[in-house]
Design brief:
Distance between the termini: 50 Å
Order of helices and strands: EHEEHHHHHHHHEHEHEHEHEHEHEEH
CATH superfamily of the largest domain: P-loop containing nucleotide triphosphate hydrolases
Largest sheet: 9 strands, mixed
Strand order of the largest sheet: 1-6-5-7-4-8-9-10-11
Number of helices: 16
Structural class: alpha/beta
Strand content: 5-15%
CATH topology of the largest domain: Rossmann fold
Helix content: 40-55%
Amino acid sequence: MVFGFFKRKKKEDPAVELAAVVQELVRTQEKEEKELHEPISSEITNPAEDVVIHSRADIVPTAQAEVTEITHGFEATYMADINLETETELTPEIKEEVSEVQHELQPLRKLSWSERLKRGLSKTRDAFGKKLLGVFGGGKIDDELYDELESILLTSDVGVAGTMHLLDDVRSKVSLRGLKDSTELKAALSDSLVELVAPLEQPLQTEAHQPFVIMMVGVNGAGKTTSIGKLAKYFQQQGKSVILAAGDTFRAAAHEQLIEWGSRNNVTVVTQQSGDSAAVCFDAIQSAIAKKIDIVLADTAGRLPTQLNLMEEIKKVKRVIDKALPGAPHEIMLVLDANIGQNALNQVRAFDDALGLTGLVLTKLDGTAKGGVICAIAKERPIPLRFIGVGESIDDLRPFTAQDYVSALLD
């Protein structure tokens, strides 16, 4: 059965605070313009959605201009800064009050990806970057300093192999650059980290095949289905058409969840009542071929690597996908929960041995202090890290870049 969703849900716009600002502005202006003896009439309709200003023609010009400008700025930038520079000067009291509300609304401003990444990695940075301040605080570079650095790396889930590699590389850079003071170590460590994780930075290229079939795998609760919804949005923003295969037939609410993501993104979701994951994926690929769809995102049921019968089943899904489209799946992507730290490396090994992974997705980096596991993966099983997730927003899953990751950890 194929469900098509073509109606986009209206994005809610948190304008309640703006409504309060405008109303207070009008009240204050009314008080200060008593000499005009004209009441100010202003109404904000449905402030939780679009802001609409209804004003009388004889509204005080300064208030009307300011209300219009604030509303225009709000609609254009979605909680960005409200420009107070108008043709008519407002009283200092009004400016101060609007500035206070602006400050309160600042967290709602749409952040850049680098800002969201830095905020998302805050817990890892607290466990890693802030501890390094003592190491970089000045003083002689000696064995005691390296011991402290080793302890910080190990407790940040960089792993034994990754830690030893970084220590050796930092020592080499210290020697080659003739570094003497610990304040100079930060640049050396930053360079070593970038060099270590750089092989993971391989953006996914989907142009070689149409449809390009991506098989999503992982354990229960890693965020697989949610990642599929976010990836659908990501590919759509690149101008590609997407179809979703609800191949997780074990979890009761899995296909409903995927249908909801399909509704949000206006994409088709293929599902079946038979409970056969391989059949769902087969039907989705056939539909994609017929409709010339660019991307097939195939969900699968979560499973532990120790569940040998389920690991055999997912191998069957892979074989069926290849029958539906020879050479597919073109990408087998493992979704990992960053909260599990070093256990993520064990999952990578198990799924890679069973399926031959071509990419990774690391989710929930914003909720863990174990973001250093990326270094462990880079050292022991350097499979391309296609995407990382640092939040619940649909835009919070983005391609991994080594320099941005290291900068968010250390800066």
